Amino acid sequence: xxxxxxxxxxxxxxxxxxxxxxxxxxxxxxxxxxxxxxxxxxxxxxxxxxxxxxxxxxxxxxxxxxxxxxxxxxxxxxxxxxxxxxxxxxxxxxxxxxxxxxxxxxxxxxxxxxxxxxxxxxxxxxxxxxxxxxxxxxxxxxxxxxxxxxxxxxxxxxxxxxxxxxxxxxxxxxxxxxxxxxxxxxxxxxxxxxxxxxxxxxxxxxxxxxxxxxxxxxxxxxxxxxxxxxxxxxxxxxxxxxxxxxxxxxxxxxxxxxxxxxxxxxxxxxxxxxxxxxxxxxxxxxxxxxxxxxxxxxxxxxxxxxxxxxxxxxxxxxxxxxxxxxxxxxxxxxxxxxxxxxxxxxxxxxxxxxxxxxxxxxxxxxxxxxxxxxxxxxxxxxxxxxxxxxxxxxxxx
Length: 397
Fold this sequence. Notes:
Helices cover 35% and strands 24% of the residues. It is α/β, with parallel strands linked by helices. The strands form four sheets. An eight-stranded mixed sheet has the order 1-2-4-3-5-16-6-15, sandwiched between helices. A hairpin with a 3-residue loop joins strand 1 and strand 2. Helix 6 packs antiparallel against helix 7. It is elongated and about 80 Å long. 47% of the residues are buried. The mean pLDDT is 95.
């Protein structure tokens, strides 16, 4: 059995250096000039040939033999907040911080790339790397797909990793089926007819219409979807008018939809439009719906998950492994890939032992750096498990 842990230890100093540099230099969304420069320099130094893809994405290919191609993805962007972790290498920016762990993802994939490049002649196929921008705003992975990341060479399978500050460090969690919720953020604009508050009969009140839309849409969860299925359909903003004695022309609602099944997601989206439009029409007004974000659930493929997972299991303490993960109510734009190619996804626990558990997207969150070794192992062993497994399958055929 290959000693992946020894290979990872060989690059431990580089791994810490990379993580801390990236942590101290966070960038947002697609604006990743410095991050892209740094990652490309590291890839070039290890012998890879990085290429730009889409809007601030990076890709590289490792492998000299014919065979299947597996894509390994890491996201690179930070969040718009000030860090309050108290770490000696904490970022001092007021505008950006790596409070979701993407600096760790990027570091783990760079280290995995070093190991895979060192053993390139032993890879029975191709490993394609993707360093992705703009996951936090939900558009980065879509941009990568639209820019051709799944082609040249054609990707046969893919997986991603996310570190989790709420799970014990060095644990590995995964499973098959729906891993995350889809996320759809929408705006409903209600059009009425404004007028003086003393003569409401001469108006079409958009606030009244908007209120009925909110109430009517609550029946989608309770009456139109199986009670065993999780659906979130709620509103976070309702804005209309500026004076108490004036009925405005319009009212604006902002809400979101989250569900674990893509077919239910489409059903709910259809009903939101129908109920909003028909409710408005009933009162003599109109309504239109626009989506600022549309993201499907991440769905994991049983065969890919097994091939990757069975290899990873060989190197992980059984007490730290859970291959029947519960569904988690977060959203992940890796779904843009998992919709198109067989995929899987792994969660790596990174909660420090000596401090309170703080959830991601919190300015005080801390990720245990030891867990990066586990993440590198997942990348490397998972990729080799898939490629070796597919090679054996083809030989048997």
